[in-house]
Amino acid sequence: MTVNLTLLVVMGVLYAVGVYLLLERSLTRVLLGLMLLTNGTNLLILHAGGAAGSAPLYDGSLAAEEYSDPLPQALILTAIVISLAVTAFLLGMIYRSWVLGRRDEIQDDVEDRRVARQSSYDVEDDAEVPADTTEFEETPRRREPDETVEAPGVRGVDGREGR
Fold first, then answer.
1. Is the pLDDT of residue 152 over 90?
2. Residues contacting 4, CB < 8 A, separation 6+
3. For residue 150, which phi and psi values (nearest 5 degrees)?
4. SS3 assignment, position 133
5. Is 19 helix (H, G, I), strand (E, B) or coil?
6. Are the CB atoms for 10 and 43 separated by under 8 Å?
């Protein structure tokens, strides 16, 4: 398998710019970052599929190694459909945000600011754990050789209750 350095650099740039845009507060930039990430991932899947070969149609004269793998192509097609749906959803969110507030920037609300100010100490999770107060013995008691063990509700040697 040969490595195409240009394709790897393009994927790296798409991922870097996509992550940078995802971290912005503007929904339009988030949408562009998501689109760049999906395109970078599609290139990664295509590159991982290996070198191009013959179409995956059966021909008795070709060896199995000469065919191209159809799985990466199917995965890319699925990723395109999913990214189209997510893009449409984000476009709907951007439109609704523009209609309601004439801005597409996400703002902190009062509850977000209150949560950010509060201490990270949680009484239930961070309190000291008390010592184990189990009612069972830590080590099993040694039995005497002539001592028999009976199950609850069972009497006698043959396991029948006395009737």
1. no
2. 47
3. -115, 140
4. coil
5. helix
6. yes
**Token couple for 132:** 């184990």
Amino acid at 16: A
Per-residue model confidence as pLDDT tens digits over 58-76: 677 777 677 777 888 889 9
Radius of gyration of the chain measured on its C-alpha atoms: 32
Q: Is the pLDDT of residue 163 over 50?
A: no
Amino acid letter, residue 123:
V
How far apart, in whole angstroms, are the C-alpha atoms of residue 90 and residue 106?
13
DSSP annotation string for 96-121: HHHHHHS--B----HHHHHHHHS-S-
Q: Can you tell me which residue has the tokens 């490595």? A: 3
Q: Which two tokens stand for residue 76?
A: 């890319």
Which residue in the block uniquely carries the two structure tokens 């209609």? 99
| Structure tokens belonging to residue 35 | 């689109």
